[in-house]
Every structure is written in C-alpha cells, then in structure tokens.
TrEMBL record:
Domain of life of the native organism: Bacteria
Protein name, entry field: DUF421 domain-containing protein
Residues of the YetF C-terminal domain: 80-211
Membrane-spanning parts: 6-25, 34-54, 60-78
Chief location bin: membrane
Keywords of the record: Cell membrane, Membrane, Transmembrane, Transmembrane helix
Location(s) in or outside the cell: Cell membrane
Naturally occurring in which organism (per UniProt): Vescimonas fastidiosa
Cellular component per GO, a single term: plasma membrane
Amino acid sequence: MDLVQVAVTSLVSLAAMFLLTKLMGNKQVSQMNLFDYVIGITVGSIAAEMATELDTPENSLVAMVVYAVAAVCISLWTNKSLGARRIITGKPLILMDGGVIYRENLKKTKMDLGDFLMYCRIGGYFDLGQIQTALLEHNGTVTFLPVEMQRPATPADLSMQPDQTLLQTSVIQDGVILRGNLQRIGKDESWLVRQLEKQGYREAGEVFLAMADGNQVTVFPMESKREPADLADR
C-alpha cells in the first residue's frame, strides 16, 4: 500500500510542480536570476519530499504553492518598481569599456581574467581590440558591443534594400505533412508537392524536415547520402 501511495504522491507532486512552473513562467537556466534559481531549487526539493512524505503530503503541497505565489508576487513587484528590480535581479555591470578592463568589477562578479577571456572567445572575440564594451548582465551572461569599425556591415551601411526575411514554418516533419501549418502560411498540399518535385522528391515520406516561409521550401532528406564528419579527427 505504501508503494502505491508513493507512486500517487509522486504523480501529484509532478503535476503540481508543472502547474506551478507554468504559473511562475517558463525560463531557461541562462535566463534565470539568482532569486529564480533559489525558488526553482526549493520548489523541486519540496516536490521530492512530498513524494515520500506519506503522513502529511498536503503540507509539502501548501509549501510549494506558497513559494510559487511568492515568486509571482515578487515578479510583479519587480516589474512595477525599478528599485525592487535592482535589489532582486541586479543590474548590468561594466567589465570592459574603451580599452580598459575594470578589475574591481571583475572581483565583484567573482570572475578572474581567465573567465573573462573565455567569455570573450565564446562571444567570438579572440582579439580584445575588437571590443568597445563588455557587460555582465543580471542573468550571468556577458554581452559585447564591438568597436564600430569591427562590427559586421549592414544593408543600411551599403544603401541596400533587401526583401524582408519571413519566419519559416515546418510543413513536414518525419515524413508527415503538417496541414495546419500549411494553412497558416496560406498554402495547400498541392503547392507543397510541386515544391518538393522541383527539388527531386516524389513524396513527403522522403523528407525528414521541410521548412517554408510562404515563398520557398527548404528540404532536409530522410536519409542523407553524406556521412557526418567525425569531430574526433579534427
């Protein structure tokens, strides 16, 4: 009987955690601030305890709800109050600007020069002379403003007026035509078949993924004739 109760409370805690997570809002780990991270760990720990607490599982459920409601209230508070936002989520910190690396700010973030150089390389900057400003955002990511002469040229710089790129929508997945997505982009199945035939495909079953933007279709075959490269050899 205890095993059945553990299974039931586990499912209830999982459902409760899912609903509370949806209530608090979906965020990737990289988007979380310190408060979000602490709340996430705490709610997860309570949910795990609830699954094995056979005597009073309702206490754990109440605690989960309280934490979730508190997280929502604080989120609303920080949205309305700049002061609260600075206290709870923090503010961006300048790590480098105009050729100067701010050592004290690196110390505040518990980041050494090796860490800073790693973030620069991850951002695509192997030459620090290409960086005008480096900021540590409140979620822990480092963002960069390049030196004006080092930034990529834009169509506006070249006085060009290219056509607007449209959002691509998947119209075939695993050989199955997604008719609802076709309707959303104003196309039908016959149009899709013609597009596939132009690229040498006889049927949707030969297609692993097809993406359409309303004008053209990008197709990825079900079976590629080219083997992927072995990264271990590089």
